[in-house]
Write a structure and sequence with these properties.
The protein is mainly α. Helix content is 72%, strand content 7%. It has helices at residues 3-42, 45-79, 81-114, 121-150, 167-171, 176-205, 210-244, 246-252, 286-292, 313-343, 351-359, 363-377, 390-393, 400-430, and strands spanning 156-158, 161-163, 259-260, 264-271, 276-283, 298-299, 382-384, 388-389. The strands form four sheets. A two-stranded antiparallel sheet has the order 1-2. Helix 2 (45-79) packs parallel to helix 7, helix 4 packs across helix 6 and helix 6 (176-205) packs antiparallel against helix 7. The protein is globular.
């Protein structure tokens, strides 16, 4: 394994681990606040116990997310000093603002956890909302920095140096809005269905358990609405990528030859040497219409780009297909839930529905990981799109393989710790004696 591959894999593992906790950290506070609101409205003990149970989960994921996020920030400087040398002064603003949002989130979480009976109820409820809102702000600011890597702006590149820097223009780059909307909805989908799936599994073991039943419905409502909105966001993002990063779009769709009335490719395995896709379903005019809103529009193919500027097609295409496929399944499951809640409420306690939710528990996070693979791998070979290649930003420090092994081992250890803590928390909840109904 060469150093470039080791550095990229370490960053991929770090980001892939952290993004799970980032999604949960953005969404779980809103689930917690929804349960708290229901308690304030109904004064039912089950909602109070659910709120406190979810609050403990928020605290666990916040702590692990803080650790993994801090490590990521160090890795940017240690692994990619060439990138930070130029990017630091340009995208320092969203990172510094994200730090502020993080501190607000930490303070609000402390007030919520230790404010029971110590501060007024409405203020206490508001602190829970602040945890969620500051978490969303943190996510948007980090995505703005990533958006700049995909759509660099706010500076002029002269003789290999960035001059005339405008940090606000850099932060509000052309990619930040589409990426932010898509990512935030994905976080609600992934977390909503994962939480609902965990509680559905407990309902299979303990039918009718009042806390798990209410928890499942709150999480499913958030996840289902977000899943139904996600295709609209996906269409917005795809059109944005088609305009700004045509090579990434071509890799996503394994589209090799420039053509008008381009078909949409569903599934398949790309063969980069032959420039074809095997075992795929072709939908006539689909790609042209989805990318440009015109079934006859011309879509640029990969063969029109220099060979050393083409993204890895196989990884990008499969990741894109996985993201879309899982997102579609969750959208259908969300529609089924909302329809059944309206017309067939008895279905929601049936074993087949609970099993479906349990099997869907990891689907949203798999889609998130696939989506970020598309975003990052699809940008290659650029670390700053069209400006700096990833290989040119790598640290000259040798032995990155050892760093990669150590970092991966650390994340595996943290994963086992989090899993143990969450299983312990579930056992505590199951031991509670709560009234039925």
């Amino acid at each position: 394994m060469d150093d470039l591959l080791a550095g990229r894999l370490q960053m991929a593992i770090s980001l892939g681990f952290h993004i799970v906790f980032a999604c949960i950290g953005m969404v779980m506070p809103f689930l917690m606040a929804a349960a708290h609101w229901r308690y304030l409205q109904t004064r039912r003990e089950v909602y109070l116990m659910l709120t406190k149970s979810w609050a403990k989960g928020v605290a666990i994921f916040f702590a692990v997310g803080a650790v993994s996020g801090t490590l990521l920030s160090f890795e940017l400087g240690m692994l990619w000093p060439g990138f930070m040398q130029h990017a630091g002064p340009i995208i320092g603003m969203p990172f510094s603002l994200e730090g502020t949002a993080f501190f607000i989130e930490a303070i609000a979480l402390g007030l919520f956890l230790y404010g029971w009976g110590r501060i007024p109820e409405k203020l206490h409820f508001a602190t829970g909302l602040v945890v969620g809102l500051s978490g969303l702000a943190s996510g948007i600011l980090v995505i703005a920095a990533n958006g700049w890597m995909n759509s660099p702006s706010g500076f002029e590149w002269v003789n290999g140096q960035a001059v005339n820097i405008d940090p606000v223009a850099a932060m509000l780059n052309e990619a930040w809005l589409s990426q932010s909307v898509h990512m935030l909805l994905a976080a609600f989908v992934a977390t909503g269905f994962a939480v609902a799936g965990v509680h559905a599994l407990q309902l299979l073991r303990r039918p009718g358990h009042p806390l798990h039943r209410r928890a499942m419905h709150i999480a499913l409502l958030f996840g289902s609405v977000a899943a139904i909105l996600q295709p609209l966001s996906g269409d917005f993002s795809a059109k944005d990528v088609a305009r700004r990063q045509p090579a990434k779009l071509a890799a996503m769709e394994a589209h090799f030859e420039t053509t008008t009335a381009a078909p949409l490719i569903v599934g398949g395995l790309p063969d980069e040497e032959k420039g074809e896709v095997k075992y795929a379903l072709h939908i006539p005019y689909g790609l042209s219409f989805l990318a440009y809103g015109d079934p006859q529009a011309e879509v640029k193919g990969l063969n029109d780009f220099p060979a050393d500027e083409r993204p890895p097609v196989l990884v990008t295409h499969i990741a894109f297909q996985l993201m879309v496929g899982l997102g579609t399944l969750l959208m259908l499951l969300g529609l089924l839930y909302l329809w059944a809640r309206w017309k067939r409420p008895q279905w929601l306690q049936s074993r087949w529905f609970l099993r479906s939710l349990a099997w869907a528990t990891p689907a949203g996070f798999l889609a998130v990981e696939a989506g970020w693979t598309v975003t990052e791998v699809g940008r290659q070979p650029w670390i700053i799109y069209g400006i700096m290649k990833t290989a040119d930003a790598l640290t000259p420090m040798p032995g990155l393989v050892y760093s990669f092994v150590f970092t991966t081992s650390l994340y595996l250890l943290l994963s086992f710790v989090v899993l143990w803590l969450m299983l312990r928390q579930i056992r505590v909840v199951n031991a509670l004696e709560l009234p039925q109904g």
